[in-house]
Amino acid sequence: MAYRITCLIIILSLVFSIHVSAEVPEKAAFIRDHHLWLIEGDKEIQITKDQYVYNPQWSIDGRFLGFLKGVEDGSNQHLYVYDLFEKEIFQPVSMEATSFKWSPTSNVIAFKNQGLLNVTKIKNGRRATLWI
């Protein structure tokens, strides 16, 4: 009897299963001719037009795209963030950065400046806090 009830529950759950799917538009970032480009669906969009771009990285939620921008020889690099919702670039900190990483759990960026590790939080599309 228990076997029949279990089979009935399995069959009913398969018949009446709810299929939920959310289409997320595919997007990718890449560097072409030292400029940052974004692909959304089948469109290519040029994000930067001046200086050289290095090391683009997505935030955990996919809203922000961080990158370093500097001169051709890799010096004088500064951290910039492109906000995909607002479609604008902003600079969360005004100091030079040699490398950076997004937090794997939130919109927090850790970056190095003159050998020191700095951390800043991005909230509502802007820098919220800077810890040094």
How is this fold's topology laid out?
Layout: H1 2-15, E1 27-32, E2 35-40, E3 43-46, E4 52-58, E5 64-70, E6 78-83, E7 88-90, E8 99-102, E9 108-113, E10 116-123, E11 126-131
Antiparallel strand pairs: 1-2, 2-3, 4-5, 5-6, 6-7, 8-9, 9-10, 10-11
Protein name: Dipeptidylpeptidase IV N-terminal domain-containing protein
Organism: Ureibacillus acetophenoni
InterPro entries: 6-blade_b-propeller_TolB-like (IPR011042)
- CATH topology value: Neuraminidase
Strand order of the largest sheet: 4-5-6-7
Work out the number of β strands.
Answer: 11
Would you list the SSEs in sequence order as H and E? HEEEEEEEEEEE
Count of individual helical segments: 1
Shape: elongated
Distance between the termini: 66 Å
Count of domains: 1
Percentage beta strand: over 45%
Report the helical percentage.
Answer: 10-25%
Please state the second-level CATH architecture.
6 Propeller
Summed over residues and divided by their number, the pLDDT gives a mean of 81
Specify Rg, calculated over alpha carbons. 22 Å
The CATH homologous superfamily is called TolB, C-terminal domain
Structural class: mainly beta
Task: State the low-pLDDT regions, or none.
Answer: none
CATH C-level: Mainly Beta
Largest sheet: 4 strands, antiparallel
In short:
This is Dipeptidylpeptidase IV N-terminal domain-containing protein. This protein is mostly beta strands. It has one helix spanning 2-15; strands at 27-32, 35-40, 43-46, 52-58, 64-70, 78-83, 88-90, 99-102, 108-113, 116-123, 126-131.
